[in-house]
Sequence to fold (374 residues):
Amino acid sequence: MPKFVRRIPDGDDRERLVCSTCGYISYENPKVIAGSVVVAGSSVLLCRRAIEPRRGFWTLPAGFLELGETIEEGAIREAREEAQASIVLDGVLAIFSISRIGQVQVIFRARFARGVPDFKAGIESLEVGLFVWNEIPWSEIAFPSVHWSLEEWRRVGNGPLGAPAGNPPYDPRGTARPDIRSPEGPP
Amino acid sequence: MPKFVRRIPDGDDRERLVCSTCGYISYENPKVIAGSVVVAGSSVLLCRRAIEPRRGFWTLPAGFLELGETIEEGAIREAREEAQASIVLDGVLAIFSISRIGQVQVIFRARFARGVPDFKAGIESLEVGLFVWNEIPWSEIAFPSVHWSLEEWRRVGNGPLGAPAGNPPYDPRGTARPDIRSPEGPP
Fold:
């Protein structure tokens, strides 16, 4: 492995990962997660994760944006990869900062492209399903931002999308760990 | 320099930068730009760039989000660094994908924290100024997304912020070069 050390390069004001052999600077910046709340009537599409972190827990189709993609293209690709679903995006439902792990998440509201639900588990999912609000497996949700996205979907329903939701007041910087439940959080 | 080659690592489906000596994978993903349209009455704050790319051209206070920051914190820091301005964010004005260079830009509408304009050039700016719409130096704007942000500000003015703007129809993927003007673009 390269021998990276943390130091402040000349002309910078932050520590970066610098190769102690050749001086190469590996800039680390937050990454973008693109995902969607895919709605069919009063149900929402959830995927049970086949991979770590949080294997076995339920999440939205979402993942790291790749170079060369727009955020819309990333969200559509993730729904295809994780749920073998073709979706159409309605608009931006929420934008979250998860500063603990260096993520910015852009979550769209979406629907199935063919008008009727059509999906099955992709390689990163153990299973995929549609859930009405009261049947969502709340105790097995993978990440806090999945809770937040679902709460925002409940709030706006199928109505017009306005200003996107941001982090909730009880976690404005996205520092809560997924395995520790906030007493002020959703069910 | 490390000898990186482009190849598809096992279990992946895209080319990554892989060190040919040790196998280290340098994942490259899009980066997040956080910035703001800082408004005072009918004027907007612009900064003339002291650094490349586009040195000498005018831009919004905006820059790369750093690890550990929320997008709001990033936008506030950039206004401080580039225009020595303390700002308060109103909400999200626009979200753009600049796929040509791997960026997602989150642009807020903001105002001066003290209620009155208070700014001067930071180290990355040659000069900083407030401009009413008709005095904006349109022929010397640094990047297409600065145009798009200013257009969205003109559209919403000081009214309530609704759904954020996205890329304009004439450049949905953010592929236009800043030095080539779109015939369909703004003035």
